[in-house]
Design brief:
Elements: H1 16-23, H2 57-72, H3 86-91, H4 98-126, H5 129-143, H6 145-157, H7 184-201, H8 211-217, H9 227-233, H10 243-251, H11 254-285, H12 289-317, H13 322-339, H14 342-345, E1 387-389, E2 394-395, E3 403-409, E4 412-418, E5 437-439, H15 449-464, H16 467-477, H17 483-499, H18 501-512, E6 514-519, E7 525-531, H19 533-561, H20 573-583
Antiparallel strand pairs: 1-2, 1-5, 3-4, 6-7
């Protein structure tokens, strides 16, 4: 029945949207979430009363977070590779183990994806819409503790030799480029911890108590492109045969695909910095590899967790709808882009390096480690053991510094009679030194590390303030039955366009800033020993800024293309129950 003015939806024939919402009602005969699925917490008939204290969204969130923590702890920093002789490198079977690591990473992905797709959709099902972002934000933030533990634990394990005990025949320490840390210990610890956590995770029912009521009160915000009606009328998703159609529906959703491309661009930057931030700190500010890994983790992870929690709270407290959430993402990404300019003014120049950045006291040429002062020493470029001379210049090795003797003073090694090392220039005119060179790189004179870490911390905060809203927006803009599938599609694109090419692209950029490569006895190029710090900073800044701009463009496109459902479909539960009663 229609009046002369306002249409009364109670007297309208039930549309597909209304039928969908009526099925979600617990009063309906064919409720979308049957109360029978809201069972107790336990395993079959074994349902201890103590476990029922966890049979709620908070209990599930705690189990979700713990499992995510230990699953992501496996992502720890790697170690540098050692040098082999020419004969050993040709016969070594070590390169074959690369496939073992690839298989391990594949299995990590297979095991981790359901937690962040099905598990996240389960959280969204179990809490009211305005609280969903808060719970997802907390879950994502807790999952970041895994990489934090991995960074810190991995950084400390780098101080332990790979075989625990250093062979007596090898006299090396942590400053030796041939040092290999015990990276494998953390993987064993994660293995046992994850298996212990999987057992309690399996005790939850198909639906938490109260899920049916919560679902009945939710109002659809699906992008109005007809996909929701198609999914409901054809009941797409009940059979594996529906996979191509279901996938096509999601790929045709312009809002979803814009958000996925934007999140993939952000993931590219995030994984790139997560992988190479320790190397950047190590080379720019002259820190050790273990300290750089620990420092990188202590900056990256808390900032990322804080960003996700803050955004979850803001979206929840402000009760943002789908379009407002996407607009919020534009603001956070824009601020992060501005803060990324820290690379322009907090960069450091290279310390003097003989044969690379300067000559040997005016003799020799640049990019040539051999000079008249060491020409008769027959030095090998395959043996990199940097020393710092009393003239505050770094040398490739004691041999290239022209040192002919060494002494141990209080267990510290010092080098003497070095023909390439010049006399220091000191203000008091004193030239008395107890040594001519000491092992290790020369201490950096750059003081920008606190400034860089401060700006980079807030850049990461605002970058990750877009992660939780992106997930919530994806859950809102697709049909209810396709939410977990949409997160799965996002996960695929996230890896294909983000987490896989990210470290590769950053690695290529960092390699492009190399000024001194390791050349082994086989004349094969290996690792990079010295980088051009300014070039590295500019390249990383360029990649980060380009990805941020791409993110902002596609988020703006998502806002522009998003069409909310018509107002007539957004009825309250009371209206739906009235419609149900009249048409029964």
């Amino acid at each position: 029945m229609k009046g002369d003015g306002i249409e009364n939806p109670v007297f309208e024939p039930p549309s597909p949207d209304l039928r969908r919402q009526r099925r979600a009602s617990p009063a309906g005969a064919d409720a979308g979430v049957p109360e029978a699925e809201e069972g107790p917490c336990g395993w079959g008939r074994c349902a201890p009363k103590a476990l029922q204290l966890c049979n709620n969204p908070e209990g599930y969130l705690a189990a979700y977070s713990l499992l995510a923590v230990f699953q992501d702890t496996c992502q720890i920093p790697g170690t540098s590779s050692t040098n082999f002789t020419c004969s050993a490198s040709t016969k070594s079977s070590l390169p074959n183990y690369l496939y073992v690591f690839i298989l391990g990473q594949l299995l990590l992905g297979v095991g981790g994806t359901p937690l962040y797709t099905l598990g996240t959709a389960f959280i969204d099902d179990s809490v009211p819409k305005h609280k969903s972002s808060l719970y997802i934000g907390i879950g994502y933030a807790m999952s970041l503790l895994g990489p934090a533990i991995g960074y810190v634990l991995g950084g400390q394990l780098l101080n332990v030799y790979i075989d625990i005990q250093i062979p007596e025949s090898m006299k090396i320490d942590q400053d030796d480029p041939r040092w290999l840390g015990a990276w494998w210990i953390a993987f064993l610890a994660c293995f046992f911890a994850i298996w212990l956590l999987i057992i309690p995770f399996t005790c939850f029912p198909k639906q938490l108590p109260g899920t049916a009521k919560i679902q009945a009160e939710k109002i659809s915000e699906t992008h109005n492109d007809g996909s929701e009606v198609l999914v409901e009328t054809k009941n797409i998703g009940k059979s594996f045969k529906d996979f191509p159609v279901a996938l096509l529906i999601l790929l045709k959703n312009p809002v979803l695909m814009s958000l996925i491309i934007a999140s993939s661009s952000e993931a590219l930057v995030a994984t790139g910095f997560a992988t190479f931030l320790p190397k950047f700190i190590e080379n720019q500010f002259g820190k050790t590899s273990s300290f750089s890994a620990t420092l990188g983790g202590l900056v990256l992870i808390p900032a990322a967790a804080l960003g996700q929690i803050i955004s979850g709270i803001l979206v929840s407290k402000c009760r943002m709808d789908c379009k407002s959430i996407i607009k919020f993402m534009i603001g956070t990404c824009s601020v992060a882009l501005i803060l990324n300019t820290v690379f322009l003014f907090a960069k450091c120049g290279n310390e003097p390096f003989a044969g690379v950045s300067e000559t040997y006291n005016g003799t020799g040429t640049l990019y040539n480690l051999t000079a008249p002062c060491n020409a008769n020493c027959r030095c090998l470029r395959s043996i990199y053991y940097p020393v710092c001379g009393r003239d505050e210049v770094q040398y490739f090795s004691p041999c290239f510094a022209g040192c002919s003797s060494h002494l141990f003073n209080n267990m510290k090694k010092t080098y003497h009679n070095c023909s390439c090392i010049g006399k220091p220039e000191r203000e008091n005119g004193s030239e008395d030194f107890l040594y001519e060179a000491v092992p290790g790189k020369c201490p950096t004179q750059c003081k920008f590390l606190p400034l860089f870490l401060t700006f980079f911390f807030f850049a990461v905060v605002f970058t990750f303030m877009a992660v939780t809203p992106t997930t919530v927006a994806i859950l809102r803009c697709v049909p209810d039955k396709q939410r977990s599938f949409a997160l799965g599609v996002q996960s695929v694109f996230l890896r294909l366009l983000g987490t896989i090419p990210g470290p590769i692209l950053f690695g290529v950029a960092i390699d492009n800033s190399c000024t001194l490569w390791d050349i082994n006895e086989c004349k094969t190029k290996g690792a990079c020993w010295v980088y051009d710090n300014e070039r590295m900073a500019y390249l990383l800044m360029g990649i980060s800024a380009a990805c941020k701009i791409i993110t902002i463009i596609f988020v703006v496109i998502a806002v522009w293309l998003y069409k909310p459902p018509p107002a007539s479909a957004a009825l309250s539960q009371k209206d739906l129950e009235t419609v149900s009663a009249i048409h029964t």
